[in-house]
Amino acid sequence: MDAATAQQALAVHKVTLPHVAGMPVHLHFVASKTTTAPAASLAALAAEGRPLAVAFLLHGRLGESEALDSTAAALVQRCAGVDDTRQHRNLVVVTLDHRNHGHRRVRDLANESWRAGNETHAQDMFSIQYGTAQDVSLLISLLPAYLPAALRIELWASLGGHSTWLALLHDPRITVGVPIIGCCDYLRLMRNRVQGMLARKNTGDHDDAAEAREEEEERYLPEGLKRALRQLDAGGMGEPAVQRLKGRKVLVLCGADDRLVPYHCSQPFIERLQHAMAATTDLGGLCEVVVEEGKGHELTDTMVIKTGDWLVRWACTREGQDARL
């Protein structure tokens, strides 16, 4: 096969389902070159005969689904390029606009930070993250009803930031996850940001600083939010969250110079999870962490490559059959 033919064989197609559970959903995949069905159709994918691994690729705050098209293409091409003798599942990457983003935007200020004038930044951001994770679960339940009957979904995965941690935590059907520049302990992250604001204000002596910190936390992190985090967030839940996650395949990607979502906010929970996985190897759980030197709060080429490799390993090839539903 010459280079041009190989490139055509790995051409990525994007099909938009205009209404699934109230929202447009975009499917990215490589269609079979051996079928007589139209190359960009789901029928072409069904003609492959392989089961599917479906991965939800979730954008960040202030982003939108269209911005992820090139990343989705890179991931499906990576999995489609695996030798036929190894490939067990075809990959479909799903993108969608998060709540209050893209076509679903209802209030711009709700996506902004405290410094940008949004007093309820912490509540707004978590509710969008958790709501998006709930959207993922809703689509896992309903998306198959909109696809050709010949398409059999065997594995679900989630790729992204905070919402990926939440989706993994609350939906046992998601067995593979790649949290990218996200945090699994929201309260620790928000407290870190409150402390950062106080440091910029250069509060005086120790007693004054402690009082200011308490006042700022009451202002920006109300008890109602903390109560929700104890019920819904991995860091807030503690041991019950560890028990839910210890059988999953998780790859954590972040930048060493990320000041917005620093790894140290996630580190205590992740190390606790890794310890539990090491003690229960029969469950097959795995949590690897890559902290990329010299990188901040950004999706890097290396992160995309490592995400693709993780999907090949645990979602698309025979090595990852134990990660299926």
Can you walk me through this structure?
With 325 residues, the chain is α/β, with parallel strands linked by helices. The chain has a single domain, classed as Rossmann fold, CATH 3.40.50.1820. It has helices at residues 3-9, 42-46, 69-80, 121-142, 162-170, 186-201, 206-220, 223-232, 234-237, 239-245, 267-279, 301-316; strands spanning 12-20, 23-30, 52-57, 90-95, 153-160, 174-179, 249-255, 286-292. The protein has an 8-stranded mixed beta sheet, with helices on both faces. β1 (12-20) and β2 form a beta hairpin. Residues 1-8 have low confidence and may be disordered.
- Beta strands, count: 8
The main pleated sheet reads as: 8 strands, mixed
CATH architecture call: 3-Layer(aba) Sandwich
Mean pLDDT: 90
Q: Give the spatial strand order of the biggest sheet.
A: 1-2-4-3-5-6-7-8
Low-confidence stretches: 1-8
Give the helix proportion (percent range): 40-55%
Secondary-structure element pattern, one letter each: HEEHEHEHEHEHHHHHEHEH
Q: What name is given to the CATH topology?
A: Rossmann fold
Q: Span between N and C termini?
A: 35 Å
Structural class: alpha/beta
| Structural domain count | 1
The CATH homologous superfamily is termed Alpha/Beta hydrolase fold, catalytic domain
Radius of gyration: 21 Å
Topology, pairings included?
Elements: H1 3-9, E1 12-20, E2 23-30, H2 42-46, E3 52-57, H3 69-80, E4 90-95, H4 121-142, E5 153-160, H5 162-170, E6 174-179, H6 186-201, H7 206-220, H8 223-232, H9 234-237, H10 239-245, E7 249-255, H11 267-279, E8 286-292, H12 301-316
Parallel strand pairs: 3-4, 3-5, 5-6, 6-7, 7-8
Antiparallel strand pairs: 1-2, 2-4
Helix pairs in contact: 3-12, 4-5, 6-7
InterPro entries: AB_hydrolase_fold
Organism: Acanthamoeba castellanii (strain ATCC 30010 / Neff)
Protein name: Peptidase S9 prolyl oligopeptidase catalytic domain-containing protein
